[in-house]
Design goal:
With 264 residues, the protein is an alpha+beta fold. The protein folds into two domains: 10-105, no CATH class; 156-264, no CATH class. Helices cover 43% and strands 16% of the residues. The strands form four sheets. It has a three-stranded antiparallel sheet with strand order 3-4-5, with helices on one face. It has a two-stranded antiparallel sheet with strand order 1-2. The chain is elongated, with a radius of gyration of 23 Å. Mean pLDDT is 73; it is low at 131-136 and 231-264.
Amino acid sequence: MSSQNLILDTSILPTDILSFSDDHFYRVVEKIAGSAEAKLLEVQGIRSVYSFLHTEDVFSILSLSCSALRDIKRQICFEADDLSYMIKPGCRGSIRYLYKLLHQKHEEHQKNITLKFKRNKQSNSPENSQPIHDLSQDSSQAGSISSHQQLLTTADSINKLNHYSSMISMLSEWFDKYCQTINVSVGALTENEDFQLFIVSNGTDEEASISCSCGIKVQLTKNHQTFSLNSSIVIGNTADTIQSSKRSIGVHNKGVQKKQRTKR
């Protein structure tokens, strides 16, 4: 049965699913694909949406003779009389559906980012304030310039999208790794609520920064073609912010630590 014509409804996913990792991610996998499928991803260290999307075949590990995989094999595979295993079609189909659903969510997210870039560029364009007589140009010249600008804009948007997805994934994995160390009990960071990510491109130069909901803005460094989170991120939960269910992100160059303040 072909699944190419099936309509994917991404509304069944949490709005911030792309930032989920570990338990939050596995619970979504269990709900959509099944508990055995969630265990299969967990045992392989596939702990986030983008880690899953970048894994070519999550079932290939089942070909190994490993005691840690025995229980999972019994749930996901048929065992033949010659002790060989065959993956159940339903399990393979569930993983394929989950992949398509998350990939579609990623595509929709990228489209939304592209639209935001276009709106911001149009609102900040100096052409909007030019006199009418400055807009009259030779049609051939205008067409050439327009085509050139379109190519530059498309390439620029693709670079921004790649940087954006990479940094969101890194920030999510960083938070999940250190949330216990810094004694923060919140499940995950929420974009536009706990932080905002800004990417600005001026021709060949690109700058990126993260703005915390507490007002602190961190400039990210660029290594070669990618940005990196070189500074240690500090997350503080004050008594005031706990009551209002808000989280704040700061930066400290001396290491990861918990930031405490006494409620006045």
